[in-house]
Structure formats: structure tokens, C-alpha cells
From TrEMBL:
Pfam families: HTH_24. InterPro entries: WH-like_DNA-bd_sf, WH_DNA-bd_sf. This is Winged helix-turn-helix transcriptional regulator.
């Protein structure tokens, strides 16, 4: 924030005072984005667990076809679920 500015007008003067008008919206935006991403991740993990509950012998390939996600994504989610356990 700039310092106050004193301007001389032939015997008169004016003081310009500045204020910080920038508003930081990033924490609120990031919170909303993170919430949506986390909700989506949890939703995928829940779906994977439901499929495994229904068929404990289900393969990663079958899960990827059912959930329309890549095998790599399914494998990563399974790894995350194992680590949470």
C-alpha cells in the first residue's frame, strides 16, 4: 500500500490517502474447488467399495468398465483405500 501523498496547490494542499482495496477471494474459491474434488474422489471410492461388496472377485478392468474410468485411476483409488484402511 502506498504512503499518503501530500500535494501543494499554491498555498493550499491536498492529502491523498490510499487504502488496500484488493480482496483475496482465493481461499474461498480454493475451498469450493477442493470440496468438489474431494466429494468426487469420495464418490468414486464409495462406488468402488460397493462394487467390491457385491462381487469381491471383481477385477480392475471390470471396475474401470463399470465406472468408466481408466485402469490407472481405479488402481490408484484402490491403493488409496488400502492406505486408509
Amino acid at each position: 500500500m502506498p504512503d499518503p501523498e501530500l500535494i501543494d496547490f499554491d498555498g493550499d494542499f491536498r492529502v491523498n490517502m490510499y487504502r488496500n482495496t484488493a480482496i483475496d477471494y482465493s481461499p474461498r474459491v480454493n475451498d469450493r474447488v477442493n470440496d468438489k474434488v474431494n466429494d468426487r474422489v469420495n464418490e468414486i471410492e464409495e462406488k468402488i467399495l460397493k462394487f467390491i461388496d457385491n462381487d469381491p472377485a471383481i477385477t480392475i478392468t471390470q471396475l474401470s468398465m463399470e465406472l468408466e474410468l481408466s485402469r490407472k485411476t481405479i488402481a490408484a483409488k484402490l491403493k488409496t483405500l488400502k492406505e486408509k484402511k
